[in-house]
Write a structure and sequence with these properties.
Blueprint (H helix, E strand, L loop, with lengths): L31 H12 L8 H8 L7 H24 L3 H18 L10 H18 L7 E7 L2 E8 L8 E7 L14 H6 L3 E5 L5 H7 L8 H11 L5 E11 L2 H11 L5 E5 L5 H6 L7 H7 L6 H11 L3 H14 L4 H8 L16 E6 L8 H8 L4 E6 L14 H17 L1
């Protein structure tokens, strides 16, 4: 399938506009980011990690654009659901307890999402700790327990989870899946891992440097040479007795849509790749936060010893709205940057230019969400540069799948993605 016509150039719109289309807004009419994050929470319900009415009730108490209000609403709900799950477990109701712990974990994850201007805020550490505790409690209560793992990584370890299906042992296809800019290995439960298990696959979900567990727990920050990360995950997967070494699939989600292809270009053990959604140049999307007439000056100035004009533009951007501020505050933490300008400079290193995309040899699926303004043009750019066997898969607003990474339409998306994978691996 060829890329659709009429797609704009890479990074053609503002980075924070994740929810321009694809879903009619029920709440937060004037805040793209709050609405997107709410739909993200709704969508986890497809795999039992939230309840639509429960999330709607939480959202009804949130003041639009107010980070403190967001934290309070989700944290209160998470504490309530976690306490009830613990009580259910004490009474021997394992299924009820499992479901409650899953939801509590998700709500704790959402609660601290907008607090990253101050990563040392004790609420951030508590929410992270409770998220992990609740998810691990749920893992133990599945018919086939989900195994919490530590992947050896440069003298440290990366946290993750190994999901296995029921049934007889034997070599199986294995999905290695990781998130991007702001997700978590726990969130991958609903973004690929359980979809894999339902189809008789193994799944290894993990957080690399710069991502949730590695960042919160150990302070590990992003690195552009992502193959160094994924190779550790492949090494670990191959220590598991039921992993078919010839059917290891890699999927990167959101910013993972540039990280995973980068890894696949240099890791020959990957049998197939999914870029969900595809990104050719992450730095271009960050530069799209600036007016077009200033982008060249910003790109030239961000790595200079001093660039007062760029600093003034960044200061104005940081004060232009809560959503823009959050992108840069989280980005500074996740990349280990002392300033917003340093973050932008580092972001420019995340790309597949200079022949990197062309080095990918395995069959590759590039996904695009029709209404995702944040990465408009990026999937098409990646697709055009691939020289391997490739497929372009667009998800539409009309089917409710047009938001960034198809949030809210996971079962639709993974039906198509896994059907493609099954047919591709069988060829």
């Amino acid at each position: 399938m060829t890329a659709p016509e009429g797609v704009g150039g890479p990074g053609s719109v503002r980075m924070a506009s994740l929810a321009d289309a694809g879903s009619a807004r029920l709440l937060f009419q004037h805040d793209d980011t709050f609405w997107y994050e709410l739909v993200r929470s709704f969508g986890t319900g497809e795999y039992g990690v939230s309840l639509f009415a429960e999330v709607l009730a939480i959202a009804s108490t949130i003041q639009e654009g107010d980070f403190e209000s967001w934290y309070g609403a989700f944290n209160t709900a998470a504490d309530r659901v976690a306490d009830e799950a613990a009580t259910r477990l004490q009474r021997g109701h394992k299924v009820s307890a499992r479901d409650g712990f899953l939801r509590a974990s998700s709500y704790y994850f959402s609660s601290e999402f907008f607090l990253h201007a101050n990563p040392r805020d004790p609420r951030v550490a508590r929410a992270y700790s409770r998220c992990i505790e609740c998810y691990k409690a749920a893992c133990e209560l599945f018919d086939v327990p989900i195994l919490a793992v530590e992947i050896p990584y440069e003298g440290k370890s990366l946290p993750g989870y190994f999901h296995r299906p029921a049934g007889p042992t034997g070599l199986r296809p294995t999905l290695i899946v990781h998130t991007g800019f702001d997700g978590s290995a726990e969130e991958m439960h609903t973004i690929g891992a359980r979809a894999a298990v339902e189809r008789g696959w193994n799944a290894l979900a993990f957080d690399g440097p710069g991502q949730y567990g590695a960042l919160h727990r150990d302070g590990l920050v992003f690195r552009p040479d992502w193959e160094k990360v994924v190779s550790c995950a492949v090494d670990f997967a191959l220590t598991q007795p039921d992993v078919d070494p010839h059917k290891i699939v890699l999927m990167g989600v959101s910013m993972g849509g540039v990280l995973a292809p980068r890894a696949a270009a240099f890791e020959p053990r990957i049998a197939a790749l999914v870029a969900n959604d595809g990104i050719y140049d992450f730095g271009a999307s960050v530069l799209a936060s600036f007016p077009p007439e200033h982008r060249q000056a910003v790109e030239a100035g961000v790595k200079a010893a001093a660039a007062p004009d760029v600093d003034r533009m960044l200061d104005a951007l940081l004060h232009s709205g809560e959503s823009s501020r959050w992108v840069f505050e989280h980005g500074m933490w996740a990349t280990g940057s002392a300033t917003a300008r340093e973050f932008v400079g580092k972001a420019l290193d995340y790309h597949l230019r200079e022949g990197v995309a062309e080095q990918i040899k395995c069959p590759t699926l590039v996904c695009e969400a029709e209404g995702d303004a944040a990465t408009r043009g990026q999937p098409a750019a990646l697709y055009e540069h691939l020289t391997c066997r490739k497929t372009f898969m667009q998800f539409l607003n009309a089917e409710g799948a047009g938001m960034h990474c198809q949030v809210g339409a996971g079962r639709l998306a993974f039906a198509r993605i896994f059907d493609w994978l099954g047919e591709t691996l069988d060829d």
